Amino acid sequence: MGKAMTPDERMRLLVRLCAIERDGYPLPDLESGEVDALAHEAEREGVAGWLTHRLTESYDDWEPRDELRLKLRAAAIGTVAHNARILRAAKIITEKLNGIETILLKGAALIDSPYYKDLSHRLAGDIDLWVAPDRLMEARERLLEAGATEEAYDGPQVGDDDAHLPPMKYEGVILELHGRLFYKKMGWDPPEPLGSYATEWHGRRMLRPDAMAHHLVMHAYKHYVWMKVGLRWVVDLAVVMASADDARGLLSLCKSSTPDAEKAIKWAMGVVLPLMPKATAKEMEDLGYKPIEFARNRSKGVSTGMAKRWAIERIIEKAVANAARAKGVRGKIRAIVTSIKYETGRTRARYPDDCLLAGLVKRIFFRK
Predict the structure, then answer these.
(1) Taking CA 238 as the corner, what is the angle to CA 235 and CA 243, rounded to the nearest 5 degrees?
(2) Share of the chain above pLDDT 70, in %
(3) Residue 66: what pLDDT?
């Protein structure tokens, strides 16, 4: 009879089970309720398919393995069906945008790739597609003419600082068109035009390995600062790092092009070390990186000073930019109010326990 686990213990076990190589330490016995909870956690973290793969490859001496694998089976089958739909839609979309430079990003690039070789291994939630910035709006218009629809969006107009346009839906799949990888003020995009970092895999354009590692490191770090990083992104980085002959070489672009690189890489390598193959982990440890417990990061988070500063700056910049675009005094006031309502709503969602931030910003703009 297994024992009940705390949320942190459950997350630690999930990280161990998702590791690319088994660590050799004994695994705990689990009661039936804990198997259910672990399966639910795997689905919530977006690693149900990867965990099913790891359980199939190893852990045959662990008693709960078959029960856990059975509970994850439906999610793994659903992942295959969803990813097939993603790949089909991505192919049609890039054909519709023929003549415009595009690159698949994140999940849509990772599935059925040199990194995840089976459609069940990684769930791609939507399609993120980088488009040459000077043709971003043209790409949007082409897709709208081809039958795409824009998702409900109550926010202000998209400004030059944004990474992507409001989401669209095409062939039943959510699509985001990116003109850059990150918000402009972060300064995290690679120094050269993104198209120069592209490579091809079976007719699909994606980021080459060093640019892929750069994107994954900084993307995960951004969400870590915002206290909502998922295990799926950590597994992504582990799989990409493990695929390289020279793991440290994958970090060269990130180190040379990003102001916050050292801080981001230190954190990213720390949380990914427990999931890496032993040889790759040893290489990273020799460079001075130390393991960081992912479960502890999730429960305690980090100082949110940087995230709050970004949020306040974004609210102010959006209000000013949208007011500048609007016509007439009433139009400018309406644009400011729309910006404040939308962006403070996003801020509340990100910091549910911090009521002061949204209230402070409202007082700044609505004081009499």
Answers:
(1) 130
(2) 81
(3) 93
- Are 108 and 86 contacting, i.e. CB atoms less than 8 angstroms apart? yes
- Whether the CB-CB separation of 213 and 165 falls below 8 Å is answered with no
Q: What is the mean pLDDT of the chain?
A: 83
Question: What pTM did the predictor assign?
Answer: 0.82
- Would you say 260 and 308 are in contact if contact means Cβ atoms under 8 Å apart? no
The SS3 call for residue 286 is helix
- CA-based diameter of the chain, in Å? 72
pLDDT of the residue at 163: 79
Burial (Cβ within 10 Å: 0-12, 13-18, ≥19) of residue 202? exposed
Cα three-residue angle 84-90-94, rounded to 5 degrees: 155
Closest CA to 253 of 162, 184, 179, 192: 192
In 3D space, the residue among 204, 193, 197, 188 whose CA is nearest the CA of residue 310 turns out to be: 188
Whole-number Å distance between alpha carbons of 100 and 106: 19
CB 122 within 8 A of CB 116: yes
What whole-number distance in Å separates Cα of residue 267 and Cα of residue 223? 12
Strands 173-178, 127-131: pairing is parallel
What is the pLDDT confidence band of residue 101, given thresholds at 50, 70 and 90?
A: very high
End-to-end CA distance of the chain: 65
Does the pLDDT value for residue 132 go beyond 90? yes
Rounded Cα–Cα distance for residues 9 and 113 (Å): 32
Instruction: Please give the C-alpha separations between residue 262 and each of 94, 251, 253, 268, 269, in angstroms, as whole numbers.
Output: 35, 10, 12, 10, 10
Which tokens belong to 287?
């460079």
pLDDT at 200 over 80: yes
Q: How far apart are CA 111 and CA 109, in angstroms?
A: 6
Q: Give the helix/strand (H/E) hosting 193.
A: none
For the packed helices 261-272 and 209-225, what is the interaxial angle rounded to 10 degrees? 90
25 or 14, which is more confident: 14
Angle between helices 231-242 and 209-225 (to 10 degrees): 160
The residue whose two tokens read 């926010």 is: 155
Per-residue pLDDT at 113 exceeds 50: yes
**Strand ranges (E), the chain:** 102-105, 127-131, 149-150, 168-170, 173-178, 198-201, 204-207
